[in-house]
Design brief:
The protein is an alpha+beta fold. Helix 1 (4-16) packs parallel to helix 2 (72-83) and helix 3 (118-134) runs parallel beside helix 4. It has two domains: 4-220, PmbA/TldD superfamily (PmbA/TldD fold), CATH 3.30.2290.10; 223-458, no CATH class. The relative contact order is 0.14. The protein has helices at 4-16, 72-83, 118-134, 205-220, 241-246, 253-256, 318-324, 357-362, 413-419, and strands at 21-37, 40-58, 61-67, 98-100, 139-157, 161-180, 183-193, 223-224, 228-234, 278-281, 302-307, 310-311, 332-333, 342-343, 347-350, 366-379, 384-396, 399-405, 407-412, 420-423, 428-436, 439-447, 450-458.
Length: 461
Amino acid sequence: MLNSQTAESVIDHALSLGADFAELFVEKNETNVVSTLSDEVQSVESGINFGIGLRLVYGTKVLYGYTNKTDQDELLRIASVLAAKDLRDPVSTLKSFNFNQISDIHPARKILSVDAEIESKVAYLMAADRAARAAGEQISQTRGSCMQREQHVEIFNSEGLHTNDRRNYIRSSLTAIASDAGEQATGSWNDGGLLGWEIEAGINPQHTGEEAARQALVNLTAKPCPSGRMPVIIGNGFGGVIFHEACGHLLETTSVAKKASVFHDQLGEMIASSIVNAVDDGTMANEWGSINIDDEGMPTQRTQLIKDGQLTNFLVDRIGAQQTGFARSGSGRRESYKFAPASRMRNTFIEPGDAKMDDMIASIDKGIYASHMGGGSVQPGTGEFNFAVTEGYYIENGKIQYPVKAATLISTGPKVLKEISMIGQDFSLACGMCGSISGAVPTTVGQATLKVDDILVGGNA
């Protein structure tokens, strides 16, 4: 996408201005989004975005700029502007580019640049809508979406790296709305991955619609949730969002290097229950948060974060490695060419255990089963969190009694890790978008159903 001679000239110029390291990140991003409202197509939107990001590093100071132009003079100008306050004699020289052809471990077939498959996507969303509305007369409306994205990246840097990658993302979702006597409730289901529209063969519109409707109908009949400290069972899949937000971000060198994480000096120490094993893995085939290479050009890898309760690794990008001395983990990610990379999660999850769901429920006198989790807020540095339960049930005397609404889970990541006493076998993953200093990137969360012995539950009963 960018002429190698142009890249060489720009990086050489940046080094002549005294930069220790220089990098060009070239991106072409094509997107298509099909949206439906009940049984009607609401919109079909497509777009192409292109740009180049230029990063200069002086020690651990990062200077960043970007442009939509490939013009050499414009890129040279940006380099000069960025370095204006940090000019010094050259300290590094450019190494000759050595193109590195990566292995694509996440192949895709029905890609956006070949065919957007609009009719097929509309048919899928219409079938999901019919399934949802057939679940009950109280389902008054659905909202569907199918997003497909094809991202091409090319990276040059002053250490001689020249590589490229193509990433194909697909994600479909349906939200169902249930109404009765002035009350409303919602439910949703989504599927996604790092592949093309061939995902259609592995997803079922009937299941999508029925599951979204089931959640909405359960929530419509839910009672107010009791509050107080109690044991909580957190469901599989998206239940892993609590670990992601309240603990995962604290293991990124973005916060560790600043000592803004409570875990910054606890490598090798027990930070969780001994049954907890946590991983961040970018190599999982065709998963939503996977990558071939990170946005600094490093091959992805599997990183064991916690082993038998012990903190074993952090997530480390180039600058994080310079600041902390920890080895890079292929975790440098960014939303687009408009952002400098930072250490970010990929597919982050707690590994499954051997406990049975029935035994977890039977072990609770009074508590909550949070089968589906929603969004929340987290206090950076401490891991203090407040997460909404989108589908929950009250447990009493070892049995599920009734669905509850307006429940929230309140605690800290470090405390919750030590309160996990049982982990189930029903491991699953769920896709989402994660926002941080380098923008929003596709990430996967996951876990098996697990039991937390003590957590503060907020409710309005």
